[in-house]
Amino acid sequence: xxxxxxxxxxxxxxxxxxxxxxxxxxxxxxxxxxxxxxxxxxxxxxxxxxxxxxxxxxxxxxxxxxxxxxxxxxxxxxxxxxxxxxxxxxxxxxxxxxxxxxxxxxxxxxxxxxxxxxxxxxxxxxxxxxxxxxxxxxxxxxxxxxxxxxxx
Amino acid sequence: xxxxxxxxxxxxxxxxxxxxxxxxxxxxxxxxxxxxxxxxxxxxxxxxxxxxxxxxxxxxxxxxxxxxxxxxxxxxxxxxxxxxxxxxxxxxxxxxxxxxxxxxxxxxxxxxxxxxxxxxxxxxxxxxxxxxxxxxxxxxxxxxxxxxxxxxxxxxxxxxxxxxxxxxxxxxxxxxxxxxxxxxxxxxxxxxxxxxxxxxxxxxxxxxxxxxxxxxxxxxxxxxxxxxxxxxxxxxxxxxxxxxxxxxxxxxxxxxxxxxxxxxxxxxxxxxxxxxxxxxxxxxxxxxxxxxxxxxxxxxxxxxxxxxxxxxxxxxxxxxxxxxxxxxxxxxxxxxxxxxxxxxxxxxxxxxxxxxxxxxxxxxxxxxxxxxxxxxxxxxxxxxxxxxxxxxxxxxxxxxxxxxxxxxxxxxxxxxxxxxxxxxxxxxxxxxxxxxxxxxxxxxxxxxxxxxxxxxxxxxxxxxxxxxxxxxxxxxxxxxxxxxxxxxxxxxxxxxxxxxxxxxxxxxxxxxxxxxxxxxxxxxxxxxxxxxxxxxxxxxxxx
Lengths: 152, 543
Hints:
- The complex is a heterodimer of chains A (152) and B (543).
- Chain A has two domains: 1-42, no CATH class; 49-148.
- The two termini of chain A are 46 Å apart.
- Chain A is an all-alpha fold and 152 residues long.
- Chain A is built from four helices and no strands.
- Chain B has helices at 28-42, 68-71, 89-94, 117-133, 145-154, 177-183, 202-215, 233-245, 258-267, 282-289, 302-306, 318-330, 332-346, 351-366, 396-407, 460-468, 481-490, 506-509, 523-537, and strands at 16-23, 49-54, 62-64, 77-82, 98-103, 139-142, 159-161, 188-193, 220-225, 250-254, 270-273, 294-297, 311-313, 383-385, 412-416, 428-432, 435-440, 473-475, 494-499, 515-518.
- In chain B, helix 5 packs parallel to helix 16 (460-468) and helix 7 (202-215) packs across helix 12.
- In chain B, the strands form three sheets. Chain B has a seven-stranded parallel β-sheet with strand order 3-2-1-4-5-6-7, with helices on both faces.
- Chain B is built from 19 helices and 20 strands.
- Chain B folds into three domains: 16-162, Glycogen Phosphorylase B (Rossmann fold), CATH 3.40.50; 168-349, 3-Layer(aba) Sandwich (Rossmann fold); 383-537, 3-Layer(aba) Sandwich (Rossmann fold), CATH 3.40.50.
- The chains are: A mainly alpha (152), B alpha/beta (543).
- At the A-B interface, helix 1, helix 2 and helix 4 of A face helix 7, helix 8, strand 13, helix 12 and helix 13 of B.
């Protein structure tokens, strides 16, 4: 550790840096093994987007508003569309109030689902890393056994 | 009953209430609120705590937040504690009386990214609420200069720093004998205290411990005391890291009682924190009070909290930090030197002194009438966001910033400062030749020498200054954390430069023709294109 890396009194920083210099240097093999272990624990960056599985429910969570009304009927259609729009325009505040609890529930359930999804992903990635490490350890043991020859 | 007629000039306050979204027994913000209430009542004020959520222990102390507008009078003062999303700004805005903000800082959302979307979103919302609170409050207080800088950057009037009051008596609860006996067995005990949330980086604490145990002290143990939810992505991740590190004797204790915490401190050899964000780090001082040397990564307000005592580092490399643990364990004289510094640090924080400072800090608010609100700053010069301007003066982005500042009168360079200013609550302001420069505290320390390979960290205060300024803004490096965080908020008035060949963030791509590549050896072309683009937009006026 260099003294410049410490945010404290310069005299103390120098004393600490000198003390770290006096530490017995760890064996190179141990340091390499440590680096390998530390690298294994580093987390791969995760995507910022929502999981595709939950994208559709997320888009539908707000039940207060409907899609813009349309109609294919030539004559009655525009009148229907107009009536629907007028209905929505008039009653939207009441619809919002009726749907408020539903929207809150949808948001809460979506939060819970995404938490479960991400926890499972985390668990799976840890297990994969753990299996990989076990495999490597086994391979190392087998290699050591092979080079040492038959047991005495 | 509330008076129906508003007096023209409010008299000094008789009641000083506090609002906090959620309060729990034992959490740092909650403790502070209860302490302030005791102080205020001691000074003769009526004082209630209003909250939306509270635990059973706090129930007798708290009134529901909805009751505040009915119960408060026009001549009362409300201290609004802000550290997380409250969804209460409309209620606070329309309620009676004078209001002041007490800012405990909000964790940057980016520290929760990839672990907890809901909390990340709530942190974003909390910063929006901070901005929404500006017109409601006549003064703003922070518990560190680091936090105060963000308030100044956000445009709050009357910003000052209050000393953080600690109940030292509570740190000396009798130790739990069984836990003490279990851990006091000759092993070196490394301790961390805090909730298991991504911003605390308990995974880094475990990495440092693994390095220490493997390279220096096999007979060592790590104690992590604080709430841990196994059923969250971060909880799962922590258990995974623990398994993968293969270190022995890592104890994730979960939530502990005061007696158990006391036992942990009594057996601790060193306190280790690798937290990436603290508005004020109470456990750091608690460890100092208990005579445990502190080693901490110097992020956010950590160095300020430690006040030069203990060992705050610029690096978070596990092997490097492990060396500090080993040096403190092996060299008693060094350990004693560190402990002496820590004792000295605690001297000005004794309760009587702090109570007096808090009273002095609050006096202008409590004992005077509100003065006229200062007019918003009319400084609308071009903002040149160049985080590496001070630490990497010869980088192409810094050269470009310097040239642009010379070209546009009133332009200001916004950069990261290598240190936090303890002299004033605002950012460091300086003049470098003809260039006007503002330096903001980074959220994480810049490494010594600021190696060009080290990605420059974010800065909550710099980001806030850019967001709240009405000026056109140029990001001299679209790839920095600062640009990534702020660009979505200021897209309409932003230009950006990106290093040719480097990946371009999504937010910068949306700028279209206002995003220019910086090709090595062709800086001149980029400069002229940028000047032309700024001039033709009419947003900035060149010389």
